[in-house]
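Suppose you are handed a protein chain with no further information: no name, no annotation, nothing but its sequence. What can you learn? This example shows the usual starting point.
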Amino acid sequence: MYESNIWILAIVCGLAGIGIGALGYHLLNANVARNQKVRQRLAETELELSQVRDALNDHFARAADLVASIQRQSQELEHQLAQDADRLCDDLQVKRRLASVDAEEPLADSPAMPRDYADGDRGTLAEDFGLRRDEESSNVQPPRY
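A reasonable first move is to predict its three-dimensional structure. Written in structure tokens, the prediction is:
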């Protein structure tokens, strides 16, 4: 009897070990499956993002080409109008207005580049800048801050 209890105990322990192993595999495999799903969703999202970026780049390139085309056509139209007005129009005021539009420089509206010097011989970095040259100024002390 003692030997049959050992066999039964061995079989029960084997079944318990198989059950615990299967349970551990299932729990550990669930995290792996979840991680694979997350990785797959991440890859799909990155692919979609790259497609959106490519489409956006194409959109901006096309928009830039269209704007350049519109600018070129506008300049051609202004030039054509100026030529036709010069040939056909008798009104001097219209001719002057079209000629001024044709002669305008596109950089005329931009502000001047800032400088670190003043016009002329004496600038703000000169030693006598802001000093008075008359006699009464020699008695006046400069303000103290």
